[in-house]
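call fold(seq) -> tokens
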Amino acid sequence: MNQVPDSKKETLVESAYQWIREAILDGNIQPGAKLIERELTQETGVSRSALREALASLDEKGLVQREPYRGYRVTNLTKKQVQDLYELREVVESQAAELFALRATDGDLKDLLEAFSYLKDNIFHRDMAVVRRAKVNYYSVIYAGCKNVELENALSNLIERIFYLRGRSLLTESRRKKSLAEFKALTDALIRRDREGVREITHQHLKAAKEAILSTSFTEELSD
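ret:
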């Protein structure tokens, strides 16, 4: 029996990984949902072995959790986990934003204005995938402009869970309006290179986002 070349299998694993990741981040697969291997192999078009490798990678990223003898389900964060994650977010994202204000080139500032314009045009879109892409684009400009490879690496380890939570924090129109005002204030402060202002605005933005998320349904312990 011919074996699938390693390079081809890696491509299939990555394809399945991205399909499931996008479905989770876009809200098409809900937190706490059980992941049925049979259904996912049909949706992704990969073998069970490739699918399991993809699920293991998603487990490492914190997007899914493996339950002994029961398979995988989408991570359903507790309030304590959200609070812990936002404490880390404030440290990492505040530092990235301050470094952007200090180190950004004229080209970075132009990219930031373009990213904010794109975000403003799409933040009220009914498709959360479009909103998420606009937010990813905005934050990516800041992360790249901070000119710190180690900080970017740290952010890459958080990015999946951060964007997963951001999607949940923008479910209401009122929160989207407030969020847009916060992004406008942050953009203006970054353009002025106002590091103190950037720090305070980032703190207030993350505080509001955390409160919006915690107002949704979370359990005190992980779901069974």
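Residues 59 and 65 are 5 Å apart (CA to CA).
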